[in-house]
Design a protein that fits this description.
alpha+beta, two-stranded antiparallel sheet, disordered C terminus
Amino acid sequence: MNGVNHWNITNQEWERNAFCPVALKSLNHPENENLLYEIKQYTKLKDNTFFVRCFGISQNPETKAYIMVMEYIPYGSLDKYDITNMIWKDRIKALLDISNGLEQLHECNLTHQDFHPGNLLFSIQKNLLITDLGLCGAVNEKSNVKYRVVPYMASELLFDKQPYTAKADIYSFGMIMYFITTGNQPFANYDDYYSLAKEVKYNNFRPKIKDLEISESYIKLIKKCWASNPDDRPTINDIKEEIRLYYQHPKLYGIEKAEQYLKANEIQKYPQVFYRSKIFNSKETIENNYSLELKQVQSWSNYDLDKL
């Protein structure tokens, strides 16, 4: 792509940007309305450096499907990255990037509604950018979405049609923080996601955090993010400021000690799984007593939210 930059008065011609690679997101006709909605959300965040940029839209001349022209991000998503290769300071920097982006989203009175490592991409500068705003909506908006990633889904939304609030994004952030901290997906060793949803909702079941030499305040922050009562969760502004302190004062908050501990001790890791949002009919799960298999390469962990 080499878009127009400005008009050169001297040469009386348009100056263009240098060629740059782009990513194209194409949707079929039934989803065109969703695509236009997603573009609208990107427009609200067009000047934000913590989101994948959307340059505009085009249309396939043959299929007539709309195409979103996106910034090309070469290094892939966070969920495919081996966290064990990251030093602790880089992990804290990643959390700071994510919290900055989510703060900007919430300041626009928007919620992401599908917040998980698969929607966080590494830029050329190795910053983490938020993408996939297709489910993004206004704070407290009643959501008609039928698919999300259950392990990252706020407990109050399971089995109840509750409005999606900013605090639901905070719950997801807590799970992302757990993933970056441990290198394991939350509930990676759990293969029955309908039962998991019940445990999370009714028994306050959460991933275990152990074998980490890091400050108690860091662990408390994770646990506050995934509190059962949304009112007990911190705001993204509070989270960002606390993570900033971890980044600026690594010795004070035990980050340096945690780095030394990781080098000396290998934390148990489960086979990596990659969660993606997808419709799953939980009614069939109940009627047929069917459990999802957790596969090493790819694991779908979603349910039809109309039935949950």
